[in-house]
Structure formats: structure tokens, C-alpha cells
Amino acid sequence: MRELAVIDEIAVEGSLLERKFACDLLKCKGACCSIPGGRGAPLLDSEIPEIRAALPVVLPFLSDEKRAVLEKEGFFEGSRGDYATVCIDDKDCVFVYRENGIAKCAIERAFNAGKTDFRKPISCHLYPIRINRFGRQTSADTGAGDILRYHELYECRPAVKKGESENVGVIEFLKPALTRKYGEEWYNKLAIVTGLNPVEKI
User: Fold this and answer.
1) Integer distance in angstroms from the first to the last C-alpha of the chain?
2) Alpha-carbon gap, residue 40 to 82, rounded angstroms
3) Would you state the torsion angle of the CA atoms of residues 160, 166, 170, 175, taken in this order, to the nearest 10 degrees?
């Protein structure tokens, strides 16, 4: 396995540089949106007002049950620097709706419909990458000190198999999310480290 790579003070776990991955929703049924454990998706402090502003256009895509929970409990829990979306029955994120048995995000559905500029929490967009911190994060933080790790989830085995069969790396698959988080220049540096060709393949 490759060693940890550090790009502009952002560390990337060696396994991420080699991992093959491409979501296969028909097989995993959107399992990452309903991981048991009591907490939903990690949220940045800055995402709280963005999601709050998007709520009016997101609510119509949710069930009566989810809307009732949002009205009673709100959409997030935790404290500054450690927020997460609310979960229902220790499983579903409060923003989950189901389509043909597949768990999907109502925020992203509103985004795809052109009703909001906020796509979904960056932690969801980046999955199966999780971000750990080395040192203290500040409001002006640009990502320095982030450590990117692969989160192993049993239900994601079909995605690993599909990535291997199609020769798609997790870094390549998550280009939109990584670019959203760290910028195109940083992503292109990462692409060089992983052996991708920024001109021809990305």
C-alpha cells in the first residue's frame, strides 16, 4: 500500500490512492444515507445556515413523518464544530426519501431540480471519504490539517467491485466532491500523485 501523501498540508491516506470505487445504487440501496449509529451526516458549522435557507424547497420532497420530525426536533444536533443531521429510528438521516427502494437525499433532489444552490453536506458528497482533523479548525480554515481516510462500509462492497471492474479509483469517482472541497488546483495535484492524467482522463 502507498504511504500517506501530503498535498498543501492536506494528508491523504495511502489506501485512498489505490482504492477502486464506483457507487452501485441498485445493489447498495443508498446504504450510506441510513447508517445505523444514532448520528447522521457530519455538518460543517457553515452548512447550518445554508441548509436552513434551503428547507422550504426541500420539505416538499419528504414524507409527512420526516417533516414532522423536522418541525419538532430541527434538522441538526450537536454543538459547534461537531454538528450532524438528525437521525430517525437510529438509522435514516432526516433528509432521506426513498425511490424504488433506494435511499436518496431530498436536499440533493431539490438541488437537481434547480431549487437551491446547496447540493448536500460535503461529508455526504465526499463519502466514502471521511475527514479527520490534525490540530484545531478555525473559521478561516482552508483545509490545512485535514486527513482524508477511506471509510470501510460492508454495504459498499458492490461499489468496490464495480470500481475494480471499470477501473475507476475512488479519487477519480469523487472528483466533483474533492474539487468542491479543496479546489481544482489541489485536485489536479492529487491526480498526479495517484497516476491520473489531468488532461486526458479528468
Assistant:
1) 23
2) 11
3) -150
Q: pTM here?
A: 0.88
* % of the chain beyond a pLDDT of 90: 75
Q: Which amino acid is at 196?
A: L
CA distance 41 to 34: 9
- Residue pair 131/147 in contact by the 8 Å Cβ criterion: yes
- Euclidean distance between CA atoms 16 and 29, whole angstroms: 23
At which residue does the C-alpha cell 462492497 appear?
A: 157
Q: What is the rounded distance in angstroms from the CA atom of residue 76 to the CA atom of residue 54?
A: 14
Burial 90-119, CB ≥16 within 10 A → b, else e: eebbbbbbeeeeebbbbbbbbbeeebbebb
C-alpha cell at 141: 480554515
> What pLDDT digit, counting tens, does each position of 103-152 carry?
999 999 999 999 999 999 999 999 999 998 754 444 445 577 899 999 98
* Average pLDDT of the residues in 42-52: 96
Cα 197 → chain centroid = 24
